[in-house]
Specification:
The complex is a heterodimer of chains A (711) and B (92). Chain A has helices at residues 14-22, 66-77, 92-104, 116-121, 128-135, 150-165, 175-180, 190-207, 218-226, 229-249, 252-276, 281-318, 320-327, 329-334, 342-347, 352-358, 365-374, 384-394, 399-423, 445-487, 499-511, 521-530, 536-552, 568-581, 598-607, 610-622, 627-637, 639-664, 670-697, and strands at residues 2-8, 39-45, 48-54, 82-88, 109-114, 124-126, 139-141, 208-210, 434-437. Chain A is α/β, with parallel strands linked by helices. Classes of the chains: A alpha/beta (711), B mainly beta (92).
Chain lengths: 711, 92
């Protein structure tokens, strides 16, 4: 099969064109470095099958960062049969440098003159036909975001691939090089680079003209406000607060609605159907209280997850991300990181995995490792459902402020950790950088919704698999424990135990200083399954609390509805509650306070106080990243750094949560609080001195290896 | 700042010495990445934002805008027509 690779400068619309051409749904955004890994799809054009590869953006074939290395290696070593070189029509001079390099190496290519709509708006006119003639390569004018020129590109692609298949090849014969007196070659010495640049300037002079004078752009006027120190930082905080308000507060009624409806159909409906079919009680319990309860937990997360990805999509599409990096540059310099490192941290609010991958755009390995270690402090979307549910249970009126406080705590801890690591085991100043600020663009509602939808789908599938499996596994353990207890009755009414309970009870003393009492061992099991995926915390608590409460009831079926399965009544109530919450329906005297969902009631019963709940949330925020994030961290930074991240974050989580709980409850038992505060301080100081000693011992820090570039 | 002609101009200075709105021509750029991104000798640049306390400056090169770390900007030499255009230097 013929391989076609898409190569060009960052932020020239390669991935948009790739998506349009192939029907793929790869992630796009208005900033350099969205694509850090290659993506491929098989495409059939006019009966010809081809493998189309989307590569990370590069400015030249000289590599400075790992994402550029991916493209370089593919272009130079994988020998693709054809390259689609995406050239930015609004910035043709810079883009053509790479084109010339590709031509110098004799690589077969077709040129897509993309962003032609932007160029037109700026009065830039390009003679595409002449450009093609001078380059000796076919040129097609495209505007991928509008779908313009796609048909012509597909036609050209099919022609080129057919020519390759028939052995004719599509090698370019650049006419412009002959004019400049420089033959094809791979000369990357300063003289060679200068000659190539002269060649590009001559080319541009022949094919491009600008109509009208260059005017000040709206982007420049907006930047004057957004980049200023006095307006930039408050605006950034305002934007982030708006994101969290929309994500937590505005979606809260929807969480309740989805939970009620999913509970009605997935749990109650399924139970009714299975019991009507006279299935064994064990099977009904496993399916309804295990798998279906897990599915309900996943479904109820959907509104906040969708909202956060929608907001991040708007930020990414608008071009605000690099500006945020500029605004936060000063703060990041304090912890020895370049402003550019802020983008991976911001992406971390969506998901830690792509955030860690985004660090590939940083030049220095030390900067990459430090950013990777700090990224998990940014509360990812998976932690959001845990916050939302606890906020519903304990902080009804101030829920969004509590969630915002958790996000801010994560950022503050990232800064403090950065300072500590910079002074100890990751010494050094942030590397230098040069980064493009894209023109602002109005986010396309369709693109943002699609971005949020695909992320939600991927979240539901990923989280669903984990949560349902965990819930099912826990149900099996519970059922096995029940069966064992029945088969081996112990005298004196001793409580029954299963593996999960034994583990939970063994570990719970460690968590007592952060307010988890011995009877709430389920909270510890929640934290353990949370390492698989953070959202599993809720799934685990949901399943276990429900089962525990049924065991504690004299009649386990007491809370189950009798009689036929009714849909109309509960559904009407759920819709009415939603309408009242959003002010669409006027509340009447008959509408009492909204009944709390089962899990919310259980959380209140087991955690008892808001202080204990907040300490638990602090632990969830800070402790070890999930398995997927750890796997990527290990791959990108090395396994040693992965284990460091697990240990550092888990100890820090315990220290922060315990310290918070002991300080907040100091007056209730001062001697006990003083004791635990001393222990926690000793652990924290031990950790800090350990890092200092390690930093002093390190003769040669391993993070300097692999340094590239001369920038 | 260096008078390259000995006759009063053009003057060579570092990119980070340009004040807001100042225009100049890149004379030397040792950073390969910056050159590949378009800051090549002979190119006209305009300073969009330069505050002494910030670690990066924003420059316009043709239709592109770049955030350049001050450490990099300090290594890029630019030629300006008259001394007056950079006299105020960066605003603080």
């Amino acid at each position: 099969m013929i391989t076609v690779a898409m190569v060009g400068n960052p932020n020239t619309g390669k991935t948009t064109l790739f998506n349009r051409l192939t029907g793929a749904r790869a992630r796009v955004g208005n900033w350099s470095g969205v694509t850090v890994e290659s993506a491929e799809i098989v495409l059939t054009l006019h009966g010809l099958r081809m493998r189309v590869i989307d590569l990370p953006g590069i400015y030249s074939l000289t590599t400075h960062t790992p994402d550029e290395q991916v493209t370089h290696d593919f272009v130079m070593r994988a020998n693709p049969e054809l390259l689609i070189n995406i050239v930015d029509a609004s910035n043709i001079e810079r883009s053509l440098y790479l084109t010339m390099q590709l031509l110098d190496r004799g690589l077969p290519l077709v040129v897509a003159l993309n962003l032609s709509d932007v160029a037109e708006r700026r009065g830039i006119r390009i003679d595409a036909e002449k450009l093609g003639r001078l380059l000796g390569a076919p040129v097609v004018v495209t505007a991928a975001s509008r779908g313009r020129g796609l048909h012509a590109l597909k036609h050209l692609l099919a022609q080129s691939v057919a020519a390759h298949a028939s052995g004719e090849g599509v090698r370019a014969r650049p006419e412009v090089q002959g004019q400049m007196g420089a033959g094809p070659g791979c000369d990357d010495t300063p003289e060679g680079v200068e000659r190539r640049q002269q060649c590009v300037r001559s080319l541009v002079a022949q094919v491009m003209r600008r109509e009208g004078a260059r005017r000040e752009r709206l982007s420049d006027r907006v930047d004057r406000v957004l980049l200023s120190r006095w307006a930039g930082i408050p605006l950034f905080i305002g934007v982030m607060y708006a994101v969290f308000w929309l994500t937590v507060k505005a979606t809260q009624p929807l969480v309740g609605f989805v939970d009620s409806v999913a509970q009605l159909f997935l749990v109650d409906g399924l139970r009714h159907a299975l019991e009507s079919g006279h299935l064994p009680t064990l099977a009904v319990t496993l399916l309804c209280d295990g798998a279906a309860a897990g599915a309900v937990a996943v479904a109820s997360f959907a509104p906040p997850i969708f909202a956060i990805f929608l907001c991040l999509g708007v930020l990414e599409e608008s071009g605000y991300m690099p500006r945020a990096a500029f605004v936060m540059d000063r703060m990041l310099r304090m912890i020895g990181l370049p402003g550019k490192a802020f983008i991976p941290l911001l992406v971390g609010f969506g998901c830690t995995v792509p955030a860690i991958l985004s660090t590939r755009t940083l030049e220095e390995r030390r900067d990459r490792v430090l950013t990777m270690l700090l990224t998990p402090f940014m509360s990812c979307g998976a932690r959001l459902p845990v916050y939302t549910l606890f906020a519903l249970a304990f902080f009804d009126r101030s829920g969004n402020r509590v969630v915002f406080a958790l996000y801010v705590t994560g950022v503050v801890l990232a800064v403090l950790s950065g300072l500590l690591l910079r002074k100890t085991i990751l010494k050094g100043a942030g590397g230098t950088y040069i980064m493009e600020l894209p023109t602002y663009q109005r986010p396309s509602p369709w693109c943002c919704v699609r971005h949020a939808w695909y992320n939600l789908k991927s979240f539901v599938v990923r989280a669903g698999q984990v949560i349902i499996l965990v819930a099912l596994g826990l149900s099996v353990l519970q059922a096995a424990g029940d069966a064992w207890t029945r088969a081996h009755p112990r005298g004196g009414g001793a409580p029954r135990r299963d593996v999960a309970e034994a583990v939970g009870r063994a570990l719970v003393p460690v968590f007592e200083p952060m307010g988890i009492d011995r009877e709430n061992w389920l909270a510890v099991i929640g934290l353990m399954t949370g390492v698989l995926a953070k959202e599993s915390v809720i799934g685990t608590l949901d399943v276990f609390y429900a089962q525990l409460e049924r065991q504690q009831q004299t009649d386990p079926d007491a809370d189950r509805p009798d009689g036929p399965f009714a849909v109309r009544g509960p559904l009407k109530t759920a819709v009415r509650t939603l309408g009242i919450a959003y002010g669409v329906i006027q509340a009447s005297d008959e509408d009492g306070p909204a009944a709390s969902a089962g899990l919310v009631k259980s959380l209140r019963a087991h955690f008892k106080t808001g202080t204990a709940a907040f300490a638990y949330l602090l632990f969830v925020l800070i402790y070890s990243p999930c398995l997927a994030a750890l796997a990527v961290l290990g791959r990108e930074a090395g396994w040693r750094w992965m284990w460091f991240s697990v240990a550092y974050q888990t100890v820090l989580a315990w220290v922060c949560a315990s310290l918070f709980y002991q300080v907040a409850t100091f007056s209730s038992n001062p001697p006990r609080a003083l004791f635990w505060m001393s222990v926690v301080t000793a652990v924290a100081l031990g950790g800090v001195f350990g890092l200092i000693a390690k930093g002093r011992c390190a003769v040669q820090t391993p993070v300097t290896e692999g340094k590239r570039g001369d920038a | 700042m260096t008078d390259t002609t000995g006759e009063g101009g053009p003057w060579l200075t570092e990119l980070d010495a340009l004040a807001d709105g100042g225009e100049a021509m890149v004379s030397a750029c040792p950073s390969r990445k910056a050159r590949e991104m378009g800051l090549t000798p002979g190119v006209q640049v305009r300073m969009m934002r330069n505050r002494r306390r910030e670690h990066a400056v924003v420059v316009a090169v043709e239709d592109a805008r770049f955030m350049v770390a001050r450490a990099v900007a300090r290594t890029i030499l630019v030629a300006v027509g008259t001394q007056a255009r950079v006299a105020s230097h960066a605003t603080g």
